[in-house]
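Please predict the structure of the following assembly.
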Amino acid sequence: MNLAHYLGLLHHAESNLAEAFAQVADAHEDEPDVALDCRRMAQQCQAHMEELSPFVDRYGEDADDEPDRLHSDLFQGTRTGALALLRDLHDLYLMTSESDLTWTLIGQAAQGARDRDLLAVVQRCETDTATQLAWLKTRSKQAAPQALVVA
Amino acid sequence: MSSTVDRIAEPWGPRTPYGPPARPAEPSTWPVRVDCFLADGLAESDVDRWAQSAAVLHSNGDGLDIAVKDDRIVGVRGRAVDRVNHGRVDPKDLYGWQANHSADRLTTPLIRDGGRLVETDWDTAMGRIVDRSKRLLEHPGGWGRFGFHTSGQLFLEEYYALGVIGKAGLGTPHMDGNTRLCTATAAAALKASFGTDGQPGSYTDVDHCDAIALWGHNVAETQTVLWMRMLDRRSGPRPPAMIAVDPRTTAVAQEADVHLAIRNGTNLALVNGIAHLLITSGRIDESYVHAHTLGFDALEQVAADHPPARVAEICGIATRDLEAAAEIIGSCDRLLSTVLQGFYQSNQATAASCGVNNLHLLRGMIGRPGAGIYQMNGQPTAQNTREAGADGDLPGMRNWDNREHIEQLARLWNVDPIQIPHWAPPTHAMQVFRYAEQGSIELLWISGTNPAVSMPELSRIRRILAKADLMVVVQDLFLSETAALADVVLPAAGWGEKLGTFTSVDRTVHLSEQAVDPPGDARSDLDIFLDYARRMDFRDRDGGPLITWTGPEDVFEAWKACSAGRPCDYTGITYDRLREGSGIQWPCTPQHPDGTERLYTDGVFNTDPDFCETYGHDLPTGAAHTEEQYRAKEPGGRAFLHAVSYERPPETPDDDFPLLLTTGRTLYQFHTRTKTGRAAQLHDAAPDVWVEISPDDAAAAGVAEGDLVRVESARGALEAPARISRIRPGLVFVPFHYGSWDVDDADRPARAANELTLTAWDPVSKQPMFKVAAVQITKVADGTGPAPAPTLGASAPVAADAVPATVGGPGARATSTQGGLTT
């Protein structure tokens, strides 16, 4: 059974995402809505990790040391201005998309494993992730015309 | 029966008790009481003529006539026939008109020259704006270099003209009003629950209701005539029960049967807790909920997480008070709710305001006499800013995300739909200032408002307005704190000096006649906008002029076409019809020429996907829902129940800043006092800023009544005398009205409340959070007397005997004449 590998992948993805949301929040304090929502989403990702932990233990987490390129690409030093915000939201969207699909796949596996507890966690958490994606899209769509055409 | 009343000392005037009409269909039984104030000892018989108008120093929309003698305004008198006020006049309107005559009115345009504002003529001033505009438009994305910050104090026609200039002429989404600060959450909550903006209720619901709940609404000070109506019900037969939610001991709280002095920022916990009690006790209208709402199961789950003990703990109130409020709401037959800044300018604003809508939907209390909701407005014409699309909404309550709605506007204006920005919601005010701060907006045009005092975190706002690469245009009656920082200042005509219409909270449209000429070279805001449009030579898609209007009635007729078929349908209203009567409620069509008293009388809401104003949001984050998601819900005319859990505000007290700040209003002042501060009676009643603290907090800080204290947040500080009041312990209140325009001492420390507030806003309504900021307080010096705070209302001193009562004296004598009914 390879579920452990994917649980490990998701645990890492949520961990990286929590860190990335927190970094974006700190880097964009001058955009208070971004900072507030990113902090809230960093906390959600932390909560997801806690929810996942018992299953990681149950299925025996196989430590996955594959480098996470998406996260390592974030923030090449501090940038300012509207383009930096757009780029950071864009990165977060891609990272969150990885979590989003991974939740879906683990949900499928949970069905196959007849694991009602894991299925309940997936259903709770994937709603948060979908909202994170929707928010990132809403906010970056709003920012794009000014950042790309005007500024 | 006529009496002379000092309306500073007795702001609500004599009582005229009344009971509910015998049958719902009967006309209002609220007795007429005509209030009048004339200057210089004039009698009504001395007046040359009366010009029909309505009140502009709050949002109630009270009908009044302007008295004119020798071509000067000399007073006002309430209109007995008006459906809103039955003759009564708010003290702010009784005395505030005197500001029109101030010696410091702007009478000529000013331009910045060598760092100073100097007098000039209209051609030069407008030439500067137009030159800059045309230069900005020469480059790609020119539209994005313009920002507009308008008001809740202009007229409908002015907003519509501005909206067309911005959206079809320049093609910019960067237009909002200071309505963002006062009423954006009302609009957001109405859209989220019912599909579109538009108040469900009518003021006549006060006549019929058997319970009134005031959610963060100090109506006794902000809309005094509405409060008079409520007080008259309370003193008549079969009075309604009353619930007040307010951390201060307002006059409303003192009158109420249940006062919930909750901790600031916990509104959502409170309304969820009441929903919990209604659901668990089975006091919901199950057939109404089933037939007319969506989302009950999710709400039931969230409510289950808000049991009374937890809610009482979060809100800092007794469980029995929470239960008493739920008992009233759960047992009444006709509940009237009003909601205002205590909810709108606080934590989780849209979700909490939707939470009030939830309670009405759960109880089936909407759309019938006495069962109503007022999601209030703060400013007199805020409703029109929203309707006409001069803020973050599109004209006619259209949905920016609905292609057909954009095409309707494009046909109406004869422009290419792509010219109308609709890739995202119109830019909200806080974001407009952010773009100006970052430098992408290079021309910021501010009309009829004063962000240098009213916006949060003023040091930042001043820094933005003073930026060298930003051209700031201000049109106003006075050289306000904002105008003083402008590059071009345009002198505007005010109320009574121009013709137009505006609309009250309960959708009553009033006409306001031009009573006198404006001073000097001042021009109406409409004339200024139309002059700009002419000089810019905006064109439609066939090369014809985009804007051909020459006066307010032209614009009104164009607006009617824009409103046709939308919730705010004005097509049955004309200037002549408004002159014949005294206010008509929209929607008003040729088929329903008398207007519409209540919305949603049949339980069918404006949530149809092709009609609604928004596809909705995730309320905690503001993430937009898509059209597909919305259609999948199959709303079918049902209203949305919203299920959101309480979360802590973004800033809470800590060791460094142990107290919570809230800002607000006094009865005697409006906004940043540009008018009320220039009327002697109002100025003298509340001449300077103060800080309210509880006896406990005062004792802890060693502060006595009148002592000078310093209030400091992470963002700034102010100094003001302390008023020891019955405010909730742990909370500090500072009125937001006081800027610097009438401070003579240049060395005086800052006094504006918004030096302290934080830059943060609700994720859906984008309304800034003025009601939650952590502060510390320290004594600076002994006082020389009591604080300059009124002794009436929420600022009443604990030591009542030690502070002279607020009175107006001989100069404030007005008359109140009782008798008769409005037909």
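Chain A has one domain: 3-150. Chain A has a mean pLDDT of 87.
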